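My current task is to audit a protein record that another person submitted. Alongside the sequence sits a line of tokens, each denoting a local backbone shape. Where you disagree with what is written, explain briefly why. This is what I was given:
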Amino acid sequence: MEKKKILVSVTNYPEFCSKGKKMLEDFGCEITATEESRPYSREELLGMIKDYDAAVVGCDIWSEEILAAAPRLKILSRFGIGVDNIDLEAAKKHDIRVTNCRGINSNSVAEHTMMLLLSMIRQVAHLDRSTREGEWERAVIHEINYFRIGLVGFGGIARKVAKKLQPFGPEIYAYDAYPDLEEAEALGVTICDFDTLLEKCDILSLHVPALPETRHLINSATIGKMKDGAYLINTARGSIVDEKAVYDALNSRKLSGYATDVFETDPVDKNNPLLKLKNFICTPHIAAESYENYDLTGIETAQAIIDAFSGKTPQNLLV
């Protein structure tokens, strides 16, 4: 039987996903894994995708144009949760299955959220730079137990953030269109509407998917409803935040700080004005990149492809 050809656009896949890779190879698949530390470009995907039967998808854009150029493609196994980079309607049209890995990266992203929160409040990035430059600044900060922290979205990641926040002792609030009230009560989280969350909270942490209705959810109008001097954290998706509005709010000190792992353009343009601000900290979309997440997600994405080729329904099938 001819080997199935699998394209992998996930960085460091052979090194960190050895178990999943072996599963595919034992099933008789031939794997081509990217050697780049960035997503494949449109041109790169168009030039190679016609030869592949399946793909383990990172952050590349899988548009109608690319899917139409892939006559052999049977499944896209998303290495993560978000599928805003995949045209699901086009996938359905071309009879291509799409799966994701719901929940596996929740702990890693929650830990990263906590790291950004603490680093931002304690001004770690700015003080590190100024100390290296020979200064010896004094910085007085508020302790977390005096804050009200708001979670925009109350899914798996947000719930883990809430649990990690508990020992610090802040008041925790959350907004979700379909909240799990039982889980909120167990975690000591007060569920409220979005406007109340904006008005009451000192720190806002974003945990909603990239959807048409969440695009620029954080904009000049919603920032205007936030407390003066509030902080914002984004480990969700870059499209949720209007970066121009946040830049203006950081400059005016309406916002005291913004910490993000994601940008509207990913990878970020080196000329993005946010990068010049002292009250801004960022990481290059790595919140989910733990050894443990790579290992478990590598296994789940491989199993989804094996199931699809075996005539079974893969777990977390979206299309």
Remarks:
- Residues 291-309 form the longest helix (19 residues).
- The chain has a mean pLDDT of 97.
